[in-house]
Amino acid sequence: MAIDGRNLQILANYCAAAADAMAFTLMRTAHSTFVKETEDFSCQIVSREGLAFASPRSFGAPWYSGIDYAPVLALIDDYAEGDICITNDSYAGNVATHSPDIHIWKPVFHHGEIVCFVVGHIHNTDVGGAVPASLSRSLTDIVQEGIRIPPLKIMRNGVLNEDVARIMRLNVRVPDQNWGDFKAQLASVNVGERKIHDIIARFGIDDFLQGIEGILDYAERQARTIIATIPDGEYFYADYADEDGEGGYPCRVAITLRVHGETLELDYTGSDPQLTSSLNMPTGGRERHPLALVGVTYVLSTLDRNLLLNAGTLRPTRAILPPGTIMNCEAPAAVGMRSLTCALSQIATVGVFSLAMPDRLPANSPGGNSIMNIRTSDAQNRSVVASLGPVGGGAGGTPRHDGPEGSGGLSAFLKNTPIEINEAEVPIRFIRYGLAQNSAGAGKYRGGLATEMAFELFSPDTTITARNRNRSVFASAGAVGGQAGALSHFRTLRDGKVIEHGNTDVIKCQPGDVVEVRGPGAGGYGLAAQRDPQAVLTDVRCGFLSLDAARSQYGVVIRNDEIDVAATADLRVNLPQSVTQHFDHGAARSAFETLWTPARYQLLTAFLADAPISWRHFLKTQVFQAVEEVGETADMTQIFSALRQRYPAMSSK
After folding, report:
1. Closest by Cα among 506, 511, 509 to 370
2. pLDDT of residue 519
3. How far is CA 427 from its chain centroid?
4. CB 291 within 8 A of CB 285
């Protein structure tokens, strides 16, 4: 049959169903809650050249729909039937992007020739290293972040490499859990291989191979059609993590978007230098690296829900990723918290597109999604390492409706783990897990509410890891008159005292401690004065909004569970009635950017780019300290000159 039109769509559906089967197998046979409940995994079918052309439609992480496995496929000298390869080395092909993500791939043969590969990854709860769950922003190089497996054959001709398997099990804290998850991965790619053979039997090998290219080309055409509706021009947006390291200064991700006809360019120049913490992204400078462009995938999907997601979707787009920056770090930089930086890049991507299309895109999602992990012991003194699930925020308000609650926008694929599962597998007691009142950014369409979690511990020397802690200083921005969302918090209640942890992501706890974590709220869209008072009343009745917040944020007075119409009309006159700026970033960022203006940051970027990579984070800290001491009158040229004189070794780039 001819592979075009309807038949191409049928083939695409079969391939997506094969990827679904891989994902379902993995999810149903995995051992860790982070895989079987939270679903932090991916499955793809990729071409002989490595381009993903099929992904699951409703399972796992959507970040990898446009992945290109070519660099890592080339690191294996030869392939034979029954081979399965593995790596989690972030600097080997830049496919695995931090140590817990173990990627495997298997060639699919037909009459002795490779026709495609079935691939995928899981996020292991722990792969060894300096801290339980392996990741913390405090780590300074990748060696601290757990075992690293170079690209190799874990199965050769269907036979397991027991030597490598023993090394993998020896170097992690919960070997049985990890090995159970790994066997689920093996089952996943084996199912994918069988499904591909079924598809070839139905369509024929020639039409299958032709169809792969057709599927990729079709997605590219769809993407170009969508891009053509975006106004041409150059747009700039930046966002910040609260800290570039423990107790550090803000960390910036900056994007200049250039739209020209049917093409996009995202220039990350102006983003922070490579850090001596673990917020770095190991993209290898690849102009279509999925983690640098996942925000583009989200934007294009928002503009057309019928968009087919694969590597072809990203063909009209390129990213400029300056070397030696957080968007393109060099070994041996730590990369464990690259997911926080990736979330920031997605927020910045949606933000910069919002400037081009304010009536088509939402306000900011939070990007401070804490992945809660625990290392403790049970009544039998057995070690327990588990993920308790994500604690984040909803999506930003949109031009047409409120943001989804609790999980939405950039983190919607991370599903919560039911309390019953957690309490059955981990010796803790949940006190609260739900939506956080008054956390959403106000607006005509408010942002989605944050989630909050509180649990009591029963074992001594328990370690809690809150990976990706953020937004306790800088809020999620509101758009087109909408207000910023509420900040997050992380604290321990001990003996009647409250211990605030800020953005610290690893803490020690003792029996009787209660750990509380609250995610950040999403930004609102449109003026709060334009919100329907009945919608405000509904939020109050649902417990989403307090009476005081209804009054202060929306000017809505509620008495005896009803709206006081006259008092509301009087109060709303004092609310802003027109849009004065596109984004409301909240008080902390507004104060920060009074000192750190775009012009000042541009000078800093140029200065750091001229320094050796190993010096850049240190020099950034020195400049920030100097500017902080002097204030708004600080002379950047004088600061740079003084640093060159003080540290002459930095000039030998």
Report:
1. 506
2. 93
3. 29
4. no
* 8 A C-beta contact, residue 503 and residue 588: no
Report residue 236: phi and psi, to 5°: -130, 140
Strand order in the sheet with 317-320: 233-241, 251-260, 263-267, 317-320
Structure tokens at 189: 């790619």
Residue 561 phi, psi dihedral angles, 5° rounding: 65, 20
The helix (run of H) or strand (run of E) holding residue 609 is helix 598-609
| Residue 192 near residue 19, CB atoms below 8 Å | yes
Give me the long-range contacts of 174-177 (CB less than 8 A, separation at least 24). 174/125, 174/126, 174/383, 174/384, 174/385, 176/31, 177/31, 177/32, 177/125, 177/385
Q: Where is 495: in which H helix or E strand?
A: none
Chain centroid offset of residue 61 CA = 10
Extract the tokens encoding 86: 């593995």
Q: Is 106 strand, coil or helix?
A: strand
Task: Report the candidate in 454, 446, 469 with the shortest Cα–Cα distance to residue 370.
Answer: 469
Give dist(CA 306, CA 452) in Å, integer.
34
Q: Quick one: 74 exposed, middle or buried, by C-beta within 10 A (0-12, 13-18, 19+)?
A: exposed
Say which DSSP state 511 is in: T
Q: How far apart are CA 58 and CA 483, in angstroms?
A: 32
Sign of the CA dihedral with 433 first, then 100, 98, and 314 last: negative
pTM of the model: 0.94
Secondary structure of residue 120 in the 3-state scheme: strand
Cα separation, 530 vs 550, in Å, equals 13
Handedness of CA 165, 20, 203, 74 (dihedral sign): negative
Residues 191, 263: Cα–Cα separation, whole Å: 37
Count, residues in the chain: 653
Beta strands in 496-644 (DSSP E): 497-500, 506-509, 514-518, 558-559, 562-563, 583-584
3-state secondary structure of 143: helix
Rg (CA), the chain: 25
3-class DSSP state of 598? helix
Rounded-to-integer distance, Cα 558 and Cα 403, Å = 23
Q: What's the distance, Cα to Cα, between the start and end of the chain in Å?
A: 60
CA distance linking residue 124 with residue 121, whole number of Å: 9
Residue 95, token pair as written in the block: 């496919």
> Average pLDDT of each block of 10 consecutive residues along the chain (653 residues)?
76 95 96 88 96 91 90 96 97 94 97 97 92 88 95 96 95 93 97 98 95 95 97 97 93 98 98 96 96 94 93 97 97 93 94 96 86 87 85 93 85 79 92 96 97 95 91 96 96 95 91 95 96 97 97 96 95 93 95 94 95 95 95 94 92 63
Is residue 230 helix, strand or coil? coil
